[in-house]
Design a protein that fits this description.
Helix content is 59%, strand content 9%. It has twelve helices and six strands. The protein starts with 6 loop residues before the first strand and ends with a helix. The relative contact order is 0.12. One of its GO terms (cellular component) is endoplasmic reticulum membrane.
Length: 444
């Protein structure tokens, strides 16, 4: 016990690494409407958190992508017939618009759930200050207020839900938390928005289908990204791990921007290079900040308040508050979710960083710029050549044609023909220059 609130970093309890997690509490379904935007039936919620679903989809997805990559190579990268239709084009547009709007809706909803209704601001000393902030982010079940959380004790031979006594703040055995109890992050929106966001990772597989139907190759990075995201979200929601909030918060915000960008570019609208560079930067940032803060939660211990009833020598009772250090996370399942996400994000961060360096900073960017300059210079030379041909190559008006008899008539025919050819050449030169200027703008 300590007599003042504090925070410290220490190695997580060894019990956090008892894999696979045993005796974990069931994930608590979100409250029905009107406490949530709409009702998610509890049996549907629970069924989709069966481990077999994400594992089966991830494995089948990877196998199918490998097979279709091979099929596309055998066809020389030729686009599928359906990808050339207007129907396909508009379906792709609708897909991007849907994910942009849905991601923005999730981003707004998860911000309101966390920063609007659950997290205590660190400058509100009357509510506990920084300790209350950490408590509201680490303990996501129970009633609002510093020291009022409901936690799960996964210690050997315990495995019970414990609630804080309203007076003494001592943790006592209790029933599982109610989905109708307001104030903490899970019930305020993480259960609802997080579960739907988990389902959205299945839908995002359509991104890969679009690439394959265009005859292109789906990279190993994309397969790893989609399959890993499904399992990462499953493990976070299944074990109600507090840091999964970070995943939903960052990822939904980035996706809202990213799918808006995809929608714009699908209409062949040129997007400035700084915007593309900023999107890649934000993706890398979400990996670093999100993964780093989630990893840090494994080592955070903070002061949890408790009231002690002490008896003095005269037999009088005196109540005074003391603090004990408790870990931010409660169960091996929550810790497993953090470890899996960090392991998943580490190579993803490296791959995105390598892409950024090669595309915008490294020799790849220089080579691409040099190649674009060569193309523009070659195009300008070609245009200049056409202009010269159109204006001078057939200028026979300056040529003296000397013929006997009907020479004057023949000379008039030659002049008329030369004028017509010259006009055609000048028109071709003007069209070529306009095309070159457009290609120059696009390359830049």
């Amino acid at each position: 016990m300590v007599h003042h609130p504090s925070i410290r970093l220490a190695l997580p309890p060894s019990t956090f690494f008892d894999y696979p997690p045993a005796h974990e509490p069931a994930s608590i379904a979100p409250a029905p409407f009107p406490f949530s935007p709409f009702t998610i039936p509890e049996e549907v919620y629970t069924k989709w958190l069966d481990i077999k679903i994400p594992l089966y989809v991830a494995v089948v997805y990877t196998i199918v992508v490998k097979s279709l990559n091979k099929y596309n190579r055998s066809r020389g990268g030729k686009p599928w017939a359906i990808s050339k239709t207007r129907t396909f084009f508009w379906l792709v547009v609708l897909h991007n618009v849907f994910l942009a709007v849905y991601s923005a809706w999730t981003f707004v909803g998860i911000i309101a759930a966390g920063f609007g209704r659950s997290f205590v601001a660190p400058w509100k000393w009357s509510e506990g200050g920084l300790m209350a902030t950490i408590d509201s982010m680490c303990k996501i079940q129970g009633s609002k207020g510093y020291g009022n959380a409901t936690v799960y004790d996964s210690s050997p031979n315990v495995n019970l839900w414990l609630s804080s006594h309203p007076t003494t703040h001592q943790l006592l055995e209790s029933h599982p938390p109610s989905a109708l109890t307001p104030g903490r992050l899970w019930n305020e929106g993480l259960a609802f928005y997080g579960w739907i966001f988990y389902l959205s990772k299945f839908y995002e597989i359509i991104d890969t289908i679009i690439i394959l139907m265009k005859g292109k190759q789906s990279s190993n990075l994309q397969s790893y990204h989609h399959a890993g995201a499904i399992i990462s979200m499953w493990i976070g929601i299944r074990y109600m791990s507090p840091p999964i909030f970070i995943f939903v918060f960052f990822n939904s915000g980035i996706h809202a921007l990213m799918y808006t960008y995809y929608t714009i570019t699908s209409f062949s609208i040129r997007v400035p290079k700084p915007i593309k560079q900023a999107l890649t930067t934000m993706q890398i940032t979400q990996f670093l900040i999100g993964g780093g803060s989630a990893f840090l939660s494994l080592f955070i211990f903070y002061s949890y308040p408790t009231t002690i009833d002490a008896v003095d020598r005269a037999g009088k009772h005196h109540l005074h508050r003391e603090y004990k250090h408790v870990p931010c996370l409660d169960t091996p399942g929550q810790a497993l979710a953090v470890v899996f996400n960090v392991v998943y994000l580490t190579p993803l961060t490296w791959l995105f960083a390598r892409f950024f360096i090669r595309s915008y900073l490294g020799s790849g960017a220089s080579k691409s710029a040099a190649a674009s300059k060569k193309v523009r210079d070659a195009g300008k030379d070609a245009v200049d050549g056409i202009e010269k041909t159109g204006s001078a190559g057939l200028d026979v008006e300056d040529t003296s044609v000397k013929l006997n008899g009907n020479g004057n008539g023949v000379e008039q025919v030659i002049k008329a023909t030369a004028a017509s050819v010259r006009q055609d050449g000048q028109a071709a030169a003007a069209g070529a220059r306009r095309g070159w200027e457009r290609s120059t703008k696009t390359a830049d």
